Amino acid sequence: MPDSTNIKQARVLIVEDHPMFREHLIQLITRDLGVTVCGEADNIRDAMALLEKEKPDIAIVDLTLRGGSSGLELLKDIKALGLDVQVLVLSMHDEDLYAERALRAGARGYITKNEASSEVIKAIRCVLGGEIYASQRVTARLLQRMSQKRTPSTLAGVDTLADRELEVFQMLGRGKSTKEIAQVLNLGESTVETYRARIKEKLQLRSAAELYLRAGQWVRDHGA
């Protein structure tokens, strides 16, 4: 890992499913930071192969990857294998719901795509410098959560869903069937049904119709 005074030595991996945004990001960071982009990937399998081959200093990861796979799962794989790479999540998803999940999974920073280019560069510098990057809003929320006990009565709505449950909920909101979700997430259909049952219980929904309606509304509201 290069020190904060010599960031130009850094090697960067981009994990993003939109080619146009990848191109923009590469132009931005090579121009403003002078770093080397050592690889690009749009799915977990290719990203893991490049991480092991290229050994980048930092990976900039989107949460939604090709095939419907999740950047959260990539974060967990990186953490489980003990790979020596810092990860910055750069995503369109609502930081109120995803930032804490990403940091808990091993990311060193979270920033949304609607931030200015200068803030994205600041976040990359911060992570490369060995620090954790989060917006003031996320930092305040994390500190607040640390200062109080989290009991079922303090949790509400979609916040109560585990990471995999949230993925299933999101796919239901996109109109995916149990079979389709099982194929994308490489799970058995019975496992997906179990997740559906847990989601219904946590969100206090009585039927499959209510589940699809709630999930669809959530996807529309969050652009997920």
Outline of the structure:
With 224 residues, this protein is of the alpha/beta class. Helices cover 53% and strands 11% of the residues.
| Alpha-carbon Rg, integer | 18 Å
Total helical segments:
10
* Largest sheet: number of strands, sense, barrel closure: 5 strands, parallel
Domain count: the total is 2
Shape, principal axes of CA atoms? globular
Q: Uncertain runs with pLDDT below 50, 5 residues or more? A: 150-155
CATH architecture of the largest domain: 3-Layer(aba) Sandwich
Average pLDDT, to the nearest integer? 87
Helix-strand pattern: EHEHEHEHEHHHHHH
CATH topology of the largest domain: Rossmann fold
* Widest beta sheet: strand line-up: 2-1-3-4-5
- Classification by helices and strands: alpha/beta
Taking the alpha carbons of the first and last residues, their distance comes to: 33 Å
CATH class of the largest domain: Alpha Beta
Percentage of residues assigned to helices: 40-55%
- Strand residue content: 5-15%
Please give the number of β-strands: 5
Name of the CATH homologous superfamily of the largest domain:
Response regulator
